[in-house]
Amino acid sequence: MLKPLLSAAALCTVMALAFGATAFAQQSFDPSAYAALAGPSEPVPPGTRITTANWQQYQRFLSVGLQALFSGRYFWKIPAEAVLEVGPTIKIGLPKKYREDTEKYSQSVKLVPLPDGGYTISG
Q1: What is the per-residue pLDDT across 20-37, written as a single tens digit (0 to 9) for each?
Q2: CA 73/CA 16 separation, integer angstroms
Q3: 119 - beta bridge partners?
Q4: Residue spans of beta strands (DSSP E) within the chain
């Protein structure tokens, strides 16, 4: 059941990127908008069951694509009997090559603040 759900979420994400890329590129960084989307400070406890009946309670934890699917307003939607069960957080370490390259090149690269509040990479 999760595989079709993930496929539908991926499709929504691709469509949003394809159709909204131009408008998104014209946006500047807004710290208050980021704070509103960054999610709450308290995580959803493992074992929580998100359904079509209670999804709005957890919408800050869901991607825009999943919110659209749970809303039921579009052709693609989450079936009424579907349940998204929250699992425990699993720490996944960075790949060895990534860690090695970070150590090797960290002295020659730095983040440079942009006038709109974002950052770019220098070096």
Answers
A1: 544 445 567 777 766 666
A2: 16
A3: 113
A4: 49-50, 84-85, 110-113, 119-122
